[in-house]
């Protein structure tokens, strides 16, 4: 049975938290959904949206995390997962297995996704390139 003493109830409305810069990537904005605080760092849930046109993308990296999903809410993003190009469109859900090497290299101006990761203080580790990356689509 779930031990409810280790987590708290949380209800965050759209007006409760703002999108802010200063997250993992400077070309994205992040909106905290209160889950990291409610779970005492077990899980983080935040909204991520495009802030600037893609120029270089995220670079090749992996996360030291036990669990990670991305649910695309608006727009689209193109990832390389290992050597496989993957288009993630609104409505899609991606489970990124622990340690998978990936590179987000292109996205639409209206891209917005929900990301849920455990633990909340997961680490991002740069890795050697797996393969060549296609050029991003210029924004008009």
UniProtKB/TrEMBL annotation:
Matches recorded under Pfam families: Cupin_2 (PF07883)
Where in the numbering of this chain does the Cupin type-2 domain appear?
A: 51-103
Superkingdom of origin: Bacteria
Name of the protein in question: Cupin domain-containing protein
Organism whose genome encodes this protein: Caenimonas sedimenti
């Amino acid at each position: 049975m779930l031990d409810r003493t280790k987590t708290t109830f949380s209800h965050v409305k759209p007006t409760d938290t703002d999108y802010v810069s200063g997250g993992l990537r400077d070309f994205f904005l992040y909106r905290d959904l209160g889950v990291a605080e409610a779970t005492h760092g077990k899980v983080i849930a935040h909204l991520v949206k495009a802030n600037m046109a893609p120029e270089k993308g995220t670079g090749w990296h992996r996360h030291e995390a036990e669990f990670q999903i991305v649910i695309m809410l608006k727009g689209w993003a193109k990832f390389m997962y290992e050597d496989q190009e993957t288009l993630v469109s609104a409505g899609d859900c991606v489970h990124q297995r622990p340690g998978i090497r990936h590179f987000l290299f292109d996205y639409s101006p209206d891209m917005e996704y929900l990301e849920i990761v455990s633990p909340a203080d997961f680490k991002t580790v740069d890795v050697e390139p797996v393969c060549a990356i296609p050029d991003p689509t210029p924004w008009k």
